[in-house]
Amino acid sequence: MSMLGIQANAQKIEFTEYDLPNGLHVILHQDHNTPVVAVSVMYHVGSKNEVAGRTGFAHFFEHLLFEGSENIKRGEFFKIVSSNGGQNNANTTQDRTFYYEVFPSNQLQLGLWLESERMLHPVINEIGVKTQNEVVKEEKRQSLDNRPYGNVIDDIAKGLFINHPYRNGVIGTMTDLDAAKLDEFKAFFKQFYAPNNAVLTIAGDIDPAKTKALINTYFGPVPRGADVVYKKAEETPITKAVTDTAYDANIQIPAILAAYRVPGKDTRDSKVMEMISSILSGGSSSRMYKKMVDEKKDALQVFAFNYALEDYGMYIVGALPNAGAAPAGLLTDMDEEIKKLQTDLISEADYQKLQNQFEDGFVSANTKMLGIAENLSNGYTFYHKDTNHINEELTELRKITREEIRDAARKYLNNNQRLILYYMPAKGKTAQ
């Protein structure tokens, strides 16, 4: 696609927003191109809001709030959605929990009712807690413990964070969940799942006036909660490299990773680090791929990405060795490419290609109503209540210079500021 074509497609996302008296922030995006509507609620609660000894609560509630409500029988939530032509799900990160339904647009009212029931009338009882405890344990086994390289992000977080709850991972420990009492779950809900800690975003084929009236009917009665007070746990800078080894019974091929602590997602530098990722490993023409996979053939796979979170980010580069290549040699290869970024400006041609990649990514991220709903919610939640961040991000990316790319590599990607993680097959062990 030409640059002109991308710019033509990257049209401004129009929206309106307002607050209900109970503090619920509402964002509406109208699009009549297809007869669908996405109804979503983003709660500003994730694993970073948990206390020591009670990890995993936010992710647990992602499951628990599908159990049912005073007006929805246990196990009926998914059935109601699917029988009315919809899809629904939820996901949790370190920073937020996101629930959504995508319906034919004539089922908007149903979507609003379902999410208001979740917020206003959830049933939190022993049978639901016990049921979902087993579900979460099975998910942990499938997604992390029995999946090749499944625990790598959690292992990196433990190495990069000493004070911050990011070190605990999203799922947390099953011991903590087993030990928690019902009253603790109820208190967690009351503290974080209030309208004043949430964003309701609706995108799609809607009539704004009718939608506002429905929102007022379903969400107006929800009582405001106490203000959520959050204090970021500060980390001292890493000044000496940390080397560690982790073992995984599910893998045959080791991995070598280098991870660096970088600023949070609302900073300009976080965007610069995303650009650096694209230069290093974004496709077959990227620097690490060409050098290590194509030319030297010492790597099967290479990757560089900015795992951007609210308070900090984890910048991770890594590779899987090919045909018995030494992991330490791959680290040298990666360091050489980082050194080039720290020393020389990327070419004008590479810079233009980079801009094109990010514009293309912006367009594809905002082609579906659910993507637009989530991106609007993200802007309000993570960018200082700037919902219009969805339209500003591309402009911000265009303003990042080649000099900034070099300077960010110099500032954050130094050998004395990192965790080196050897991720090795567990000899003599089998996955549980």
TrEMBL record:
The keyword Zinc applies. Pfam families: Peptidase_M16, Peptidase_M16_C. Gene3D superfamilies: Metalloenzyme, LuxS/M16 peptidase-like. It comes from Mucilaginibacter polytrichastri. InterPro entries: Metalloenz_LuxS/M16, Pept_M16_N, Peptidase_M16, Peptidase_M16_C. Residues 182-357 form the Peptidase M16 C-terminal domain. Belongs to the peptidase M16 family. GO terms for biological process: proteolysis. This is Zinc protease y4wA. Coiled coil: none annotated. GO terms for molecular function: metal ion binding; metallopeptidase activity. Residues 26-173 form the Peptidase M16 N-terminal domain. Keywords: Hydrolase, Metalloprotease, Protease, Zinc.
